[in-house]
Amino acid sequence: MSQNPDQSPSGTAREAQAPAPISFEAQILALLPTLRRYSRSLTRSDTESEDLLQDCVEKALLSRAQWRGSNFKSWAYRIMTNLHLNARRSIARRPSVGIEEAETVAAGTSADDPLEKNRLVQALETLPKEARAVLMLVVVEGYAYQEVADMLDIPVGTVMSRLSRARQALREKMREENVIPLRRPR
Question: Fold for domain 111-179?
């Protein structure tokens, strides 16, 4: 009688081994691209977004013991959101002018319609920061309403209303600037 390879000599089936959990550092590395986009949408500045991203990763690594293992993405986004809000509050208390604001930098052009892109960027900048954050997380990053609610620590209904208002404001802004003068027929 031959022995089944899936059974131990005592005849009991081997337990399926669960895959090893992904390390904390690997989870941070996997999340970097989405954190980078989110930080850029919050700060609207390449240099500030990189600083925010670094601060977020540093805080996550230092606060590793506080993570309870439920939703790593939500936890990391919450850290970034809190860091950004704290920085904004600090700036509001002590206003200053940075070098970036004093210099004028020409924007690069793309193969697409650069005017349309500029109009969209300007329209996005007119949105309140809370609405812009929700819009970027849902539309660009593709998160579900509940995930965004967890990340920003707000009710799902607030996510939905902010998203609706942000979309409507963008539509109106893009429509009002889409005036093309027509030529008179000859």
Answer: Arc Repressor Mutant, subunit A (1.10.10)
